[in-house]
TrEMBL record:
RNase H type-1 domain sequence ranges: 34-155
Gene3D superfamilies with a match to the protein in the record: Ribonuclease H-like superfamily/Ribonuclease H
InterPro entries with a match to the protein in the record: RNase_H-like, RNase_H-like_dom_plant, RNaseH-like_sf, RNaseH_domain, RNaseH_sf
This protein's name: RNase H type-1 domain-containing protein
Source organism of the structure: Hordeum vulgare subsp. vulgare (Domesticated barley)
Record-linked CDD domains: RNase_H_like (cd06222)
Signal peptide range: none
GO molecular function: nucleic acid binding; RNA-DNA hybrid ribonuclease activity
Length: 174
């Protein structure tokens, strides 16, 4: 038995070389908005978005899933998912929002002070203008392992033909 155990090491959940990260509650008085975009190769490269808003008590405030038709760029998918999530946050009167994304390039674009002249620039500008509607905001990057809830909603959003928003804990999302 020991020989078998020596030749078959236990499986780990994280790929080698990648650290697992867990979701962390936001600071007191803040709402954390996790957003993610997803692409389905099986559905002709359909795109979707998913968003989750939780408070500093880890209480679910809102969630959404949506199909993002006609979007071909993965970063555009991430930006539009974030934009939709910010709309929900504004409509639910969130004052302090901590936006957490697992796409480092989008986080860098949103945090950059200079105007973005890329094809994504107009969407980046729209998101930055929406962020100004909050009393306070911050945008940060997180590993995919800490963005699982938003990712699962995004995957479901790829398969649906409509947007769905929850303002309380849903019985079932999937």
């Amino acid at each position: 038995m020991q020989e078998w155990a020596n030749t078959h090491p236990p499986k780990t959940r994280a790929p080698a070389g990648r650290a697992m990260q867990r979701w962390v509650v936001p600071d007191e008085g803040w709402v954390k908005l996790n957003s993610d975009g997803a692409i389905s190769k099986a559905r002709g490269k359909a795109r979707g978005g998913g968003d989750v808003l939780r408070d500093n008590n880890d209480a679910f405030l809102a969630g959404a899933r949506h199909l993002l038709p006609s979007i071909v760029d993965p970063e555009a998918t991430e930006i539009l998912a974030c934009k939709r999530a910010l709309q929900v946050a504004l409509e639910t009167n969130v004052q302090r929002v901590h936006v957490e994304l697992d796409c480092l390039q989008v986080v860098q674009m949103l945090n950059r002070q200079a105007r973005n002249y890329s094809v994504l620039g107009p969407w980046i500008q729209e998101v930055n203008e929406m962020l100004q509607g909050f009393q306070e905001f911050k945008v940060s990057w997180t590993r995919c392992s800490a963005n699982v809830a938003a990712h699962k909603l995004a995957r479901v959003g790829v398969g649906d033909e409509f947007c769905m928003v929850w303002l309380k804990v849903p019985r079932t999302i999937f």
